[in-house]
Specification:
Length: 510
């Protein structure tokens, strides 16, 4: 028996965007019913018939062949053999679509096609009356809405992105008018099915809506199948840049090559570089006794005095510090010179934090990693405070700790700079969403990797069957019982080949 998911709601609520993403997640067929009506509207516009009455339009329906084809999982609306996806999203087409969608002959023509697709396939179908009329027996029904102002703003931005010059007030007026027509039409008016779940997306991102619906579907026994790998799993920009620099020098091999600390928190990569002649040094004292060569500063960065020591000892420096970390060095250096006390939110023993500390006054620098630290923190009397973060720190935890410090009424001037890198936020948010909808979750990364440990904590909170591994050899899924799907994410220091090995292995076990 096929599974049908019906999504209804007013124009501009994001139904099509959400439905497409859900279909991709679940490997369902996406059916955009509105696009089919738009195809008929386009035909009428092209033939100068948009002002004709219902009876005249009904007669010409036999001349209109609307079909759907799927290319790479995406629906293509065919109008008399032509793919018209690129022509059906204009304001004129929208206006005519609203008018003709109430005509019985037009509705009958398209409803038959939509119901046939749903009988033969697992589908997600969106429109105005899917749950009430087209698929009244759908297993899950959702009514997706948003405020008029939110929908108008989305439409405005969409048209601007296409190079058009729309008027926001006019768009808002058009949406109100269309809502009124859709809700008060005699045939199949827009309304929420009695058994539909209401979701208001006015203040929600696309990601949040998709996740909320996936959680709802999971509760109803509808889950994606197979293995899903997070989009942001593996090397981030800074790590990839640093690793590539080391391999470039290793390939030349015309002088000794050193990295100041392991280039990344991944034992597999470090061992491979050692085999190519790259030596890891952990201190200036160790380096001073070695033959002169090039020292590569890893993406975590180092204190200012380390740069000075390496240069004075006669070594060349290749600085692979992540640009986002370098920005933090500049921030704390500037604020420290201006008399601010520096608060670094992060792990005090992490190399990145140790490096940041080396760019500001150590007598007026505090590292805070947990709630107790923030509650005990007391700045020097009369000191203004600048707060920064380790780039890989948990964003939600950062906000919580900042709020504790803010509530200390005796601090007059607090500058909070969220220096968590965007890739870290995206990675953590994506991992959390994936964990919420997975039967089992695998987090890949080195045991000493701070960002991987945070990913594990986030995933474990949402999915009890969460595994922290370094390579596929560490993985044992025998205790999970029956599972339909597995999510995979990886820390910023995890190479692509290790992720692919794990993905391939898990697919053979499902």
């Amino acid at each position: 028996m096929s599974i049908n998911i019906a999504i209804d709601g007013p124009a501009g609520a994001g139904k099509s965007t959400i439905a497409k993403k859900l279909a991709k997640e679940l490997a369902f067929i996406y059916v955009d019913t509105g696009a089919m009506y738009r195809a008929i509207a386009l035909y009428l516009l092209r033939n100068g018939m948009e002002k004709e009455d219902a009876q005249t339009i009904a007669k010409c329906c036999s001349k209109i062949d609307v079909g759907i084809q799927y290319q790479n999982g995406e629906q293509c609306v065919m109008l008399n053999g032509e793919n018209v996806n690129s022509f059906i999203r204009t304001e004129d087409v929208s206006r005519v679509t609203s008018k003709i969608s109430v005509y019985p002959q037009v509705r009958a023509k398209l409803s038959d096609l939509q119901q046939k697709v749903a009988r033969d396939n697992d589908v997600i179908m969106d429109g105005r009356d899917i749950g009430t009329c087209v698929l009244p027996h759908a297993q899950v029904k959702i009514y997706l809405t948003a405020s008029v102002s939110a929908r108008a703003k989305r439409r405005y931005e969409e048209l601007r992105a296409r190079g058009e010059e729309p008027e926001l007030a006019q768009i808002e007026a058009d949406i109100k008018e269309r809502d009124d027509r859709d809700m008060h039409r005699e045939i199949a008016p827009l309304k929420k099915a009695e058994d539909a779940v209401l979701i208001d997306s006015s203040e929600m991102s696309i990601r949040e809506v998709v996740t909320a619906i996936l959680e709802l579907l999971k509760k109803n026994g509808i889950k994606r199948k197979g293995v899903s790998v997070a989009k942001f799993a593996g090397f981030c920009f800074g790590v990839k840049r640093a690793v590539n620099k080391v391999y470039e020098h290793a390939d030349i091999q015309n002088r000794p090559i050193y990295t100041y600390g392991p280039i990344i928190h991944n034992e597999e990569v470090v061992r491979d570089l050692e085999a190519k002649g790259v030596m890891v040094v952990d201190s200036y004292e160790q380096l001073a006794s070695l033959p002169k060569g090039i020292v590569i500063i890893r993406s975590h960065g180092v204190p200012k005095e380390v740069y000075d020591q390496i240069t004075q000892a006669g070594f060349e420096i290749e600085d692979a510090t992540c640009p986002f970390v370098l920005k933090i060095h500049q921030i704390v250096q500037d604020f420290s010179k201006d008399g601010y006390e520096i608060v670094i939110i992060g792990n005090s023993t992490h190399p990145e934090v140790e490096g940041i500390k080396g760019w500001c006054d150590p007598q007026h620098t505090t590292v805070i990693s947990q709630k107790e630290d923030a509650e005990k923190y007391i700045p020097k009397q009369g000191k203004s405070v600048c707060i920064v973060s380790q780039t890989t720190f948990n964003y939600k935890k950062f906000q919580e700790l900042v709020e504790i410090i803010r509530k200390k009424g005796y601090i007059n001037d607090i500058r909070v700079l969220n220096t968590i890198c965007n890739a870290t936020e995206e990675r953590q948010n994506e991992a959390e969403d994936l964990a919420k909808t997975s039967d089992a979750m695998i987090v890949i990364g080195g045991k000493s990797s701070s960002n991987t440990q945070k990913l594990y904590e986030i995933c474990k909170e949402k999915c009890k069957n969460t595994y922290y591994i370094q390579t596929v050899a560490d993985l044992d899924l025998s205790q999970t019982g029956h599972i339909d799907n597995v999510g995979i994410t990886a820390g910023a220091s995890t190479p692509k080949n290790i992720i692919e090995e794990v993905q391939k292995y898990v697919r053979t076990k499902l």
